[in-house]
Design a protein that fits this description.
Blueprint (H helix, E strand, L loop, with lengths): L28 E6 L3 H16 L3 E2 L8 E6 L4 H17 L3 E5 L5 H7 L5 E2 L5 H11 L23 E5 L1 E2 L10 H5 L3 E2 L2 H13 L4 E5 L19 H9 L4 E4 L12 H6 L5 E3 L7 H7 L5 H14 L4 E8 L6 H14 L3 E6 L17 H24 L5 E9 L4 E5 L10 E3 L11 E9 L4 E5 L3
Parallel strand pairs: 1-2, 1-3, 3-4, 4-5, 6-9, 9-10, 11-12, 12-13, 16-18
Antiparallel strand pairs: 7-8, 14-15, 14-17, 15-16, 17-18
GO molecular function: 4 iron, 4 sulfur cluster binding; aspartic acid methylthiotransferase activity; metal ion binding; protein methylthiotransferase activity
Family: Belongs to the methylthiotransferase family. RimO subfamily.
Cofactor: [4Fe-4S] cluster
């Protein structure tokens, strides 16, 4: 997943943590910027929660902070460049910078460009980050004033939250260095995940976004386990908490078929985020990914049979080394047949340390761009037709933002930040973020919907 700087309303360096931040006398403060994917955002929340519990304040800007933490992304070279730029910006504006996150797995790379950083720590090394902060800015807690809500510091809006269930990955995809940066699969204990989820729901969270590197493999790293596939009982337990539960990064293993009936029951949202990456068996083999695209179509048909309203989101890579025009055309044809609801596409990019760099027949940049455009045109056609079919239907939506001219909402088919929105532009004044309401869809675009509130 390429670097995604969190949008302004979600960026922790703009102090969108869910706390009132009136600085008390003598309170040390920390600024923060979080780059990359939602998994990095969860790491940032954990770091800030620990620091907040120790009495640190969260600064709304670099200049007012005693030090700044930059949580980096290192998945692609473009992500590394963005991370280095963010570090440079923090150094210019503050001067006292601690680096953590995925790019922190390459400390020499960072200090070679920015030798003045105070410390560099790797991904999910919470203790080392805290040690570095303590060294730069000693804590000065006041137990009578520094109260921390039970849900901790959240960098997302109050009504939804990412729930990270594991770290690392056991796959060996040639284009990816995440296992090198974040290690092998290490699943969190189910009790800890459920306790966190319960606290979030008690604090008012209406939607839990389940994330990891490989959600369907959750718990398969435990030697002594009661269930062969622990994601299934975990999903059922999460579904009993009364919030929307959305599954991200689900690999299409056969046991995913057992998740889908929970979607039909209404326990889990009928939404699967599955990284297919390509459809041609030769391309998939060069990627070192399962090369059974035809069987994948059978799986999709089985999921839709078990839960007709299921929404499928996926990401793909075009221009992978060795990709021929025939292989790319197979991908377009597969997309036509699969009729996925939500699709993202990235042009292949070399990443330092990835085995795909050494593959022969790299695709020229202009050809990658041309294929990306053709792919997105096809995906847009499919999206437009699918959304047009929703006009006249009644849907449940969750409200994200209420402004004077409209309320921005999401249907069950839409994850925050990456999918579309549904807009209500009349009679929305009494709505609040986190409300779940029924609308009738009266207009559709390429990626978004418009609707009117249904009362009663």
């Amino acid at each position: 997943m390429p670097a995604m700087q969190n949008p302004p309303e979600l960026r922790p360096d703009l102090a969108r943590a869910r706390l009132s931040e009136t600085k008390r006398d003598g309170q040390p403060t920390i600024g923060m910027v979080s780059l990359g994917c939602p998994k990095a955002l969860v790491d940032s929340e954990r770091i800030l929660t620990r620091l907040r519990a120790e009495g640190y304040g969260i600064s709304p800007d670099y200049s007012g902070a005693d030090a700044v933490i930059v949580n980096t992304c290192g998945f692609l070279d473009s992500a590394k460049a963005e991370s280095l730029e963010a570090i440079g910006e923090a150094l210019n504006e503050n001067g006292r910078v601690i680096v953590t996150g995925c790019l922190g797995a390459e400390p020499d790379y960072i200090t070679g460009v920015h030798p003045k950083v105070l410390a560099v720590t790797g991904p999910h090394q919470y203790e080392q980050v805290l040690d570095a902060v303590h060294g730069a800015v000693p804590p000065a807690p006041d137990p009578f004033v520094d109260l921390l809500p039970s849900s901790g510091v959240k960098l997302t809006p109050r009504h939804y939250s990412y729930l990270k269930i594991s770290e690392g990955c056991n796959h060996a995809c040639k284009f990816c260095i995440i296992p090198d940066m974040r290690g092998k699969l290490a699943s969190r204990p189910a009790k800890a995940v459920l306790r966190e989820a319960e606290k979030l729901v008690e604090a008012g969270v209406k939607e839990l976004l389940v994330i990891s590197q490989d959600t369907s493999a959750y718990g398969t790293d435990w030697k002594d386990r009661a269930d062969k596939f622990p994601i299934l009982p975990l999903a059922r337990e999460l579904g009993s908490l009364g919030a929307w539960v959305r599954m991200h990064y689900v690999y299409p293993y056969p046991h995913v078929r057992d998740l889908v009936p929970m979607m039909a029951e209404g326990l889990v949202l009928p939404y699967l985020d599955i990284p297919f990456q390509h459809a041609h068996p030769d391309t998939l083999r060069r990627m070192a990914r399962p090369a059974a695209a035809a069987r994948t179509l059978d799986e999709i048909a089985a999921w839709r049979a078990a839960c007709p309203e299921i929404v499928l989101r996926s990401t793909f890579i075009v221009g992978y080394p060795g990709e021929t025009e025939a292989e790319f055309q197979t991908l377009l044809d597969w997309l036509d047949e699969a009729q996925l609801d939500r699709v993202g596409c990235f042009q292949y990019e070399n990443v330092a340390g990835a085995r795909s760099n050494a593959l022969p027949d790299h695709v020229a940049p202009e050809l990658k761009q041309e294929r990306w455009e053709r792919f997105m045109e096809k995906a847009q056609e499919i999206s437009e037709a699918k959304l047009a079919a929703k006009v006249g239907k009644r849907l449940e939506v969750i409200v994200d933002l209420v402004e004077d001219d409209a309320a921005t909402c999401r249907t069950m088919a839409d994850a925050p930040e990456i999918d579309g929105n549904l807009f209500i532009d009349e009679g929305h004044e009494a709505l609040s973020p986190g409300d779940i309401v029924t609308v009738e869809v009266d207009e559709a675009g390429e990626y978004d919907l418009w609707g009117r509130l249904i009362h009663g």
